[in-house]
Every structure is written in structure tokens, then in C-alpha cells.
Amino acid sequence: MGNQSEFQRPQLSPDSPVKPPELDLYMPATPPLAFLENVAFWLRIFRRRHHFRRLFVPLLREEDRILSDIGVNRSDIEWALALPLKIDALKALQACRKAREKS
């Protein structure tokens, strides 16, 4: 091996649901806004991760040469796939690519 140190991937902060707006007037049938926001948040997260998997899992079957032409690394894709759901894998992969370009 060489004297190269292991590539340090960037640390990313997880997403969190936004606080629903405070209503001035509550009607008798006002839905639980915090619950609805949490459900919408998790639906967005699952949809985002499904989209990422649909785009990048087929790339794992390609050769390393083709992946380097695209600008990604096989280990970076596998790392992004293993991230927690609250972290956007596509943004993490882009941050990893920018960090690799700088070093």
C-alpha cells in the first residue's frame, strides 16, 4: 500500500420534521397538525431513499472504470446506501464527491 490516509467522509446532520404553524383559530375538526407533519416527513424520507436506491443500486453492477467516469466511487455508493434514513443519501454522496475533489 501507499502512504495515503483513509478518506474521511463528511459528517452530515440528519433532517428533522418542521414544526407545524400555530393556528389562530382552532375549529372543532382541526386535524392533529404535528402528527400529519411527522407522517409527511417520513413519507418524504422513504420516497427520497427509494429514489436514491432506484438510481444508484444498478450502478453497483457496473465496472469501477465506468463509475469513475461518472464521478462516484463504489465504496461511496455503498456508504451512502448504509446511511440512516434521516440523512439525504444523494446530498451525502455529493458532499463526498466534493471532499474527494478537494483532496
Give an overview in words.
With 103 residues, the chain is mainly alpha-helical. The chain has a domain at 33-102. The chain is 51% helix and 0% strand. It has helices at 33-56, 64-70, 74-81, 89-102. The protein is elongated and about 60 Å long. The model has no long low-confidence stretch (mean pLDDT 85).
The share of residues in helices is 40-55%
**Integer-rounded radius of gyration:** 19 Å
Percentage of residues in DSSP E strands: under 5%
Low-confidence stretches: none
Q: What's the overall average pLDDT, rounded?
A: 85
Kindly report how far apart the N and C termini lie.
Answer: 18 Å
Gross morphology: elongated
Main sheet, how many strands, which sense, barrel?
none
Structural classification: mainly alpha
Give me the count of strands.
0
Helix count from the secondary structure assignment = 4
Give the SSE string: HHHH
Protein name: DUF1127 domain-containing protein
Organism: Marinobacter lacisalsi
Biased composition (Polar residues): 1-14
Region (Disordered): 1-23
How would you sum up this structure in a few lines?
The protein has a domain at 33-102. It contains four helices and no strands.
Topology:
Blueprint: H1 33-56, H2 64-70, H3 74-81, H4 89-102
Protein name: DUF1127 domain-containing protein
Region (Disordered): 1-23
Biased composition (Polar residues): 1-14
